[in-house]
Amino acid sequence: MKPTDPAITWLEEKPLGLTERLYLPLFLQGLSITARHMVSRKVTVNYPEVRPTVGNPLIYRGVHRLNRDDAGRVKCVACFLCATACPAHCIDIVATESPWPDREKYPESFTIDELRCIFCGMCEEACPVDAIELTSLLDLTGKSREEMVFDKEKLLSVYDMTKDAEPMKSKTLASEGMATFDHAPGHGAAAGGHH
Amino acid sequence: MATVIVDGKEIEIGAHERLNCIEAARRAGVEIPHYCWHPGLSVVASCRMCLVETGTRDAATGKITMMPKLVPGCQTPAKDGTVIVTDTALVKDSRARVEESLLIDHPIDCSICDKAGECLLQDYHFEHGQTERRTDLQPFHSRRRDVGPTVTLFVDRCIMCTRCVRFTREVSGTSELMVINRGSKEEISVFPGFPLDNKLSGNVVDLCPVGALGDKDFLYQQRVWFLKRESNVCGGCSAGCSIVTEHNQDTVYRLKPRENPHVNKWWMCDEGRYGWHHLHSPDRLLSAGRLVSSGEDRETVEWSVVVTRLREELAAAGRLAVAISPMLTLEEAWMLCAAARSIDPQAGLFLGHVPTSGGDESFPGGFTIRAEKCPNRRGIEAIIGLFEPAVRGWDDLVRAVAASEYDAAWITAAYPHAWIDDVTAAPFGRLRSLVVQDLFESPLSKLATWRLPAAGFAERSGTWVNVAHRAQTFTAAVRPPAGVWPEGRLFWNMLGRRGLYDPNAVRRQIADSSVSLAAIGGDMPAHGVDLRVDQLAST
Fold it and tell me: Among residues A119, A192, B235, B257, which is most buried (max CB within 10 A)?
């Protein structure tokens, strides 16, 4: 969308009124929020004895997984958009020609340095084929740095491990009647131009 | 002088310049989008993207008469009084229609297309296209067709600009590519049994404005937005084509020609284009090695130690001969000569081995691949001319060494290919001290007392002088592998100069000390300078 698009409504910030300038009403409002939290239900838990409950797995940002398509192949098409979007530069992909006729290329290797990752979810957002997703697995541990660099097999195994509890997000959203783009496997929306 | 009015702005063009509307508008800072037109190829005006409104201004009355229809800017000459209008609703609407029509049968597989990021279809669609797509086509899979050993064609991504077809007919003169079928079924193809296999084939990939033609060498290697670009000069032959080295994290991914009207125009040959792989060869020499006095083993020597120890050993050895490789830059050669003469004031300076292969090969489009497979013979000869009365070559050096006229030799090489055999190398084994600086192990480096690694062409900075006496200055695109000092850095330190190696300082010093090389003294233009032209007279 260009800045000149007629669909954009540009708003001006309103000038401060008397209440804002008096400061006291806002001060009281802030205090009331503090007071409300003092008496409300506690959300902290005694981890790891008590495990926290993940509210909505659809928007939780835990360990990554690489989804499989219906034929059990990695869904990723090695477009590098996740690596491009990643602000921590933790994704490393080596693309190669795919052995399948319906796909142009696929990742020969796909590694995520989970120690470098900041779990922002940009990779998931950038992916045009819903191949990379963040699961609700929240305790990520390992004995060495090398172990925390997840390769393609490990990321696929996270999918195998979590697919029953957490189906692919595109499918969940579709079944809930929410609007999704209908992607055929192996094809993404235009990276430039279409909105 | 002729006056052309572009979007209400008057610009002057030369009376005898033959510009079309696209070129004239570019002078006025207005970019007219185009696919099929390329300055190096004939005009077909088939893509219709450059349609603009034109008219003429009457010289006597100043009255402007516009043409009722849009005309292709590529095919319309700009002459005195030509009025070009590119920002009317009619022009904008026409561009949007062209974009819409092109995208009807385009796969829109940008996410897996190697061209994404440098694709004119993407750029123009973003700038001139519509935000909504009226067809209900889903992205689909492009058919792939193998058209030659270096190039692959993604049939459905093609927009039929026919630049590639015209290139093979007009520039390479090989005419492998053609258009098959008619109308909306048009496709690019080759005759069965006649693949796109010529020495300039890689250029069709650069010409392709969309992702239809893919370079097999680069396919899927890297997304183009990760690449960093450094203007460079090809070291493949003495033509010295201007190139852009595209790299990421000190790894070269591809070379592209850089427009230079005096050297290579818009093209480069496949030999140069794919001639960078040796830079990342695992066989490269990666450390400075000194023969251990007993036996054949080499100890690795720190570079700071090399700087002093090399000087001491060569000074102790006696009469010194130096071979200055035509792969070195002017700056490196000059410093090497100076360093050698500071060690032995009578040191013999010889032009290093000049690799050649076959004869010069010219193409109908005016492009020539040179037989001399080194970039800087002219430059090295000019530098040696500053120190010696006559330029002696590699054969003279071999003869002199065989006749025991020298006690020590310092051979710079840096050749990407094998260049010397055992028989030629044998006499060098009798020398008291032999220094060899090369990219790879060779029969000569096996005999060397000092085996030093060399830098590859994209790893050096400096100036090369091509076959037509054009000097081009460039900076290194990538760093050499760990443990390798570029030659310039070693020579700089051996001369006892302070700080980091600065090729520009050396270049100015050469220009100050020499009449024949005075032209390289100032800031070097991107297209280089012709050493035969008196620069002072022309500026």
Answer: B235
